């Protein structure tokens, strides 16, 4: 498998986005989010997303020149129209707007509608923590794939939640999870690598587990029944909690903002209609609650205590949210981002169709 330097991956993504007609600044924001996602080991939401984005573009769903704009702007809240562009520039705009408002008001919330897939939610939570803020992001999703607890048909998306909180000595605490057991795009990565998925991620229309990654992709994207399990899996192991969290995310991201709910919209959806994904962004300034530095000092103490927990396996120390991604980022900055042959072939083909230069290698 080829290990590609991050800068080459960035140039590749930029080249394709520009060839598709995305303005330079929006393309740079999108490429930054995608390559950072790959660097942190979230291969499901980085370079490999070009395949899906190409399909959006070919279907006429995207307006890659559109800029996010606030259609409702109040002192501590805003509603943003994403213009049917990719979600990365929309989410970047919204999180920065929430941070700006929170500086003045202590807490701020920004919602977005008429957006698309925005990659990894944690990337935008880190924008808040880098500014000294607590950040929380939720998003609805285009693909209906989560089977509700006790159900047989998928009715919700992966509906992710991300949360970041700053510290002083330590890296920020960053939580970035889907409310499903796994994101569908992670199943895609297993399929690209030709390896089976763990039992419990995907079930068929009869509730039977699916472990063949190619078959799992078919169940998720082609079959009317079956799909991905809620976070927690079966009801006996807490799947109803993941299902409930998924509904909560849908309420904040879509019901609150006026974005789409897939099962209600899909029967009347026409070819080329945008996904109308919704997002929700919350920024909290700790100084609105405590003297400056008090929150961050307590975050450091908590993180230190958690990491000092005696491990069950000395070779596997206790971590906190954000640690695995930070370690993987260091490894990949030095050794490159792994690009499996199947993905490399897809990217070459996309370059051929778009007219973009192939940047992942010199051959």
TrEMBL record:
It comes from the Bacteria. GO terms for molecular function: oxidoreductase activity. Keywords: Oxidoreductase. Pfam families: Ldh_2. InterPro entries: Mal/L-sulf/L-lact_DH-like_ah, Mal/L-sulf/L-lact_DH-like_NADP, Mal/L-sulfo/L-lacto_DH-like_sf, Malate/L-lactate_DH-like. Belongs to the LDH2/MDH2 oxidoreductase family. PANTHER family: MALATE DEHYDROGENASE, OXIDOREDUCTASE-RELATED. This is Ldh family oxidoreductase. It comes from Muricoccus nepalensis.
């Amino acid at each position: 498998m080829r290990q590609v330097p991050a800068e080459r991956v960035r140039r590749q993504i930029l080249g394709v986005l520009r060839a598709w007609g995305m303005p330079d600044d929006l393309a740079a924001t999108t490429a930054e989010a995608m390559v950072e996602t790959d660097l942190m080991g979230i291969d499901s939401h980085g370079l490999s997303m070009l395949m899906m984005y190409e399909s959006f573009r070919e279907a006429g769903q995207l307006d890659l020149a559109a800029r996010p704009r606030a259609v409702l702007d109040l002192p501590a809240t805003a509603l943003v129209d994403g213009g049917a562009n990719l979600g990365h520039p929309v989410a970047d705009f919204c999180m920065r707007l929430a941070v700006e408002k929170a500086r003045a008001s202590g807490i701020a919330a920004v919602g977005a509608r008429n957006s698309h897939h925005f990659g990894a939610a944690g990337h935008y939570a880190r924008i808040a923590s880098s500014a000294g803020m607590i950040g929380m992001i939720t998003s609805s999703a285009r693909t209906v794939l989560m089977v509700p607890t006790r159900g047989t048909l998928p009715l919700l998306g992966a509906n992710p939640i991300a949360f970041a909180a700053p510290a002083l000595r330590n890296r920020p605490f960053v939580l970035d999870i889907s409310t499903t057991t796994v994101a569908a795009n992670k199943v895609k990565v297993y399929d690209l690598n030709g390896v089976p998925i763990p039992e419990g991620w995907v079930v068929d229309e009869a509730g039977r587990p699916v472990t063949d990654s190619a078959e799992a992709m078919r169940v998720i994207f082609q079959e009317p029944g079956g799909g991905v399990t809620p976070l927690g899996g079966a009801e006996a192991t807490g799947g109803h909690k993941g299902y409930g969290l998924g509904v909560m995310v849908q309420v904040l991201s879509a019901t609150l903002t006026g974005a789409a709910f897939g099962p209600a919209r899909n029967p009347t959806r026409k070819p080329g209609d945008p996904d109308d994904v919704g997002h929700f962004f919350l920024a909290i300034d700790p100084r609105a609650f405590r003297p400056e530095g008090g929150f961050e000092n307590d975050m450091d103490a908590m993180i230190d205590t958690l990491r000092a927990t005696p491990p069950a396996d000395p070779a596997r120390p206790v971590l906190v949210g954000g640690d695995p991604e930070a370690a993987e980022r260091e490894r990949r900055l030095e050794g490159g981002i792994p690009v499996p042959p199947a993905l490399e072939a897809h990217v070459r083909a996309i370059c051929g169709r778009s007219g973009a230069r192939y940047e992942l290698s010199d051959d």
